[in-house]
Amino acid sequence: MRADRPDRRIHFGGDYYPEQWPEEVWAEDTRLMKEAGVTMVTAGVFAWAKVEPRPGEYDFGWFDRVLDNLSQAGLRVCLATMTASPPPWLTRLHPEILPETADGRRKWPGGRQHYCPSSPVYREYATRLVERLATRYAQHPALEVWHVGNEYGCHIRQCFCDESAADFRRWLRERYGTVEALNEAWSTAFWSQQYGSFDEVLPPRLAPTFANPSQQLDYWRFSDDALRQCYLAELAVLRRVTPGVPVTTNLMPHHKPVDAFEWARHQDVMSLDFYQDPYDPDTHQGAALSFDVMRSARGGQPWLLLEQAPSAVNWRPRNSPKPPGAMRLWSWQAIAQGADAIMFFQWRQSLGGAEKFHSAMVPHGGTGTRIFREVSELGRELASVPEIAGTRSHAGAALLTDWNSWWALELDSRPSTALDQTQINRAHHRALFEAGVACDVLPPWGELSGYRLVIVPNLYLLGEDDARRLEEYVEGGGHLVVSFFSGIVDGCDRVHPGGYPAPLRQLLGLRVEEFWPLDEGASVSVQGAGPLGAVPGSGVTGDLWSESIETEGAETVAVFGDGELAGGPAVTRHSYGSGAAWYIGTRLEPAALRGLLDHVREEADVRPVLPGLPARVQATVREDDEHRFLFLLNHGDGEAVVRLPEPMRDRLGPDGSGPVSTVTLPPRGVAVLER
Ligand code: GAL
Fold it and tell me: Ligand 1 pocket check: which of 346, 355, 359, 361 to mutate, most ligand atoms within 8 Å of Cβ?
């Protein structure tokens, strides 16, 4: 990771909380870490109260010994800035840093992350600590990467206190300049909301009815920015004191309060915490989408899986352990999708506190346990293929998503409140994933020229500039698929004038006259020859949404088969320039969406990584000038046989075995093959 240390390896380890244990245990920790193949640990995440027991009084002695102990064992440290959970003295001294909910209730200390992101007091105490920390450990040989905060926005997504209100007004002044511009942007002529000055503006606190949607949208933006300002304040200190050390912060998967694309611009390496749910048979598909976001957010650069559970978590209503092989499979899935580190929460299972029933690499039962055995086995395996680190993947397809649009889409007072951005994204991504197609995930302003297929699941909010770029993309020969309720509003949640979806009408060759969302549990039949006919059975269904579409140059590929819109277009295709733009006016059942996207893919010549893969087997490629790795992952319950396009070396197979042409994967089996 550090440019001045060009060692190539997949890092392996976990969150390490030595402060929860007597010092006698620390030597055993490092011994066991070596035994398990650990190369790096994350340290200090919740150590604030212990390193600064009283305001301005520091006790780093114990932490020096922790780092020295790790470094003597040859271990690297992902060093946390320790600011994720303010110590009790701070909130006693400054109760005003505590966050408030939209209905004015205070969130008290006693858990963690109990600070208002806009609080200057919190930021001051936090950066003061970071300054001390960075200065003290700048030259420490263990320091590999900085870990700022922890899961920003995990517990406090938005704060509505007076401090936040003041910060919001400052943010609005900067964004709009004048109160007239704000009034215009927020459409305050409606419901007598016109502001005479910025001083009158409040956060969208609990109101008698729908709060102004543009105000709500801006509050999502502002809150994301307030969290990011906390990160940036710490980053500025780290850049100044330890300029050569890379910086990251662990994001949560597809996490609404934190715009991963924006945050990516301020990190040296992306990192993600992902907790696969063993009770969800499709957990790996949700993970696949999040992993693709991580890889794409910094242009294909490898990322770090900074937290996952060795087995069970403690925070779902019912917490299943990971069955044998699942932890290995899901770890390899992250690597296959671009990760260069596999880390866990946490190293040693706590005896007390809220997470004592969360699994750890060293469980309550010690090292003679399945978990420790599986962890150590994985550590050995990862060490055997260090050349994977740094390799990259290439995708022919891209899926577009945008946090701004997500925030706007899910506000109240819409045609339907059942639209869920995560579900819609997942459905489209899944159709590519199941077809074995590599996919990047980009914001609408991302570079599209390298892709032959671009999918827009549901971009309700779309600026004219980005719409024009989609137009140029298709004109230049690109293939585009746009799903319903896209291109409806501008950046202020104001409807684009000129009929829906105005900025995309010419490109799609159609006009949507009325939205016709479907009632809960209702569905509509969709009939079409050609692309949809490829789906087994004749008619297919859509649910959630329908709309009355009038074509203006597009050809109708499928029509609604019943209901008020019977006979009207449901799926269309428009040849535009040298490319084609498809439109889907309902939520197609999964097999039909898959059939349609398969068809468009063929037109666009976007092929799966490996043709003829058995169901539930994932294949990805990572490569560089010297190596080309093919990863095969069996997410299914049965054995799967995969024929390789050419004989390849099985890098996880027995030493000295020759090239193979066929791979037999047991359930949860993994193979890493090299050409
Ligand atoms: C994460 C968090 C960790 C730990 C973990 C448990 O959200 O960053 O500190 O709480 O969850 O799964």
Answer: 355
What SS3 state is found at 581? strand
Q: Which residues of 1-31 are buried (b: 16+ CB within 10 A; e: fewer)?
A: beeeeeeebbbbbbbbbbebbeeeebeebbe
Given pLDDT bands bounded at 50, 70 and 90, which one contains residue 268? very high
- Ligand 1 contacts CB of residue 42 (under 6 A): no
Q: Is the pLDDT of residue 218 over 50?
A: yes
Per the annotation, the verdict on 307 as an active-site residue is: yes
CA of 122 to the centre of ligand 1 (A): 22
Helix (H, G, I), strand (E, B) or coil at 629: strand
pTM of the model: 0.97
Which one of the listed residues 307, 434, 471, 547 is annotated catalytic? 307
Assign 529 a pLDDT band (cuts: 50, 70, 90).
Answer: low
Q: Whose CA is nearest to atom 12 of ligand 1?
A: 313
- Our CA angle for 551, 555, 561, nearest 5°, is 80
Q: What percent of the chain has pLDDT over 90?
A: 96
Q: What angle separates helix 370-383 from helix 326-336, to the nearest 10 degrees?
A: 30
468-517: pLDDT as tens digits = 999 999 999 999 999 999 999 999 999 999 999 999 999 999 999 999 99
> Does ligand 1 have an atom closer than 6 angstroms to the CB of 14?
no
Check if 147 has its Cβ closer than 6 Å to any atom of ligand 1.
no
Domains of the chain with CATH codes: 11-157+227-388 (3.20.20.80), 397-604 (3.40.50.880), 617-674 (2.60.40.1180)
Residue 343 near residue 306 (C-beta atoms within 8 A): yes
Whether 163 is catalytic is no
CB 39 within 8 A of CB 12: yes
For ligand 1, whether the C-beta of 289 sits within 6 Å is no
pLDDT-derived band at 604 (thresholds 50, 70, 90) equals very high
CA dist 215 and 211 (Å) reads 7
547-551 and 617-623 beta bridge pairing: unpaired
